[in-house]
Amino acid sequence: MRALTLLAFLLILTLVSLLISLLSGSVAIGWQGLLAVLSGTGDGVATQIIMELRWPRAIAAFTTGALLSVAGALMQVLLRNPLADPYVLGVSGGAATGALLALLLGLGSLGLHSAAFGGALFSMLLVFGLAHGSGNWTTSRLLLTGVVIAAGWGAVIGFLLALSPDQALRGMLFWLMGDLSYASSPAAGLLVLTVGLLLAIAIGRSLNIFTQGEQTAAALGISVVPLRRFLYLLASLLSATAVTLAGSIGFVGLIVPHMLRLAGVRDHRLLLPAAALLGGSLLIIADTLARTLLAPRQLPVGILTALVGVPLFLLLLHHGRNVHGEAR
User: Which of the listed CATH numbers 1.10.3470.10, 3.40.50.2300, 3.30.420.480, 3.40.980.10 matches domain 2-327?
Assistant: First the structure.
């Protein structure tokens, strides 16, 4: 009953955040106008604003937040580190490099998404190959390899920004800080989220055991090496899809799983779907604020997630001993 109550509350939170997003913007559309659009009787301008602008962006925000939250929870299990997040292994750096190259070449939205996903996939394979070496990799070796690769991507990004023309810098910086302006077609992201979440929930019991340590997991019949590889590939794929949709949005994948753990949710069969709903609704709210605080100007949504994430991160550090014990 407690699990159902939590999921029901998070589902209501998601629906409320969606409604707020659809109602908010530089053009005022009230409840009656929204209901008319949803019923198919709205005027042309309101219908275009809701169905072509606000609805796809809200769904993209939910998808991105859910992807990051689930990926963050999986990364924290894989690395057995409470401070791991979806970007710790350099996936976002590879995606950012691909996206910046696409922007420099003047490619459209499809080219941007394709280049970003290709860069993320290349970085994922690079980290896995280097960390694996000639034998099995350990979590510490994987983490160190990812950190070094991420630093290398950071240097490449700085080089590209230094070479970029001034008129292109604004779009590049917005994308690097997290921007949902290009996320007009989130259908592929929703598909990846649905499949990835179902796969993660299916191994939820193994994740619960794996958090107790690899030796304990092996003693209880868990195949540790295949599970580690599966976790890495799944978390990286979810992260790559999120970065492809909206750029690098920090703190969501780090904070959301810990918020649920601090609330007493430890079973990953509940934590993962709860993280998807909570992360998605929080990013919808953050993106709505990014669109409306300085309307008609827009802020990168990554700025708002960082402003909220920093005090929450400090709170987590204050409770660090309990969080670390749960992650282990």
Answer: 1.10.3470.10
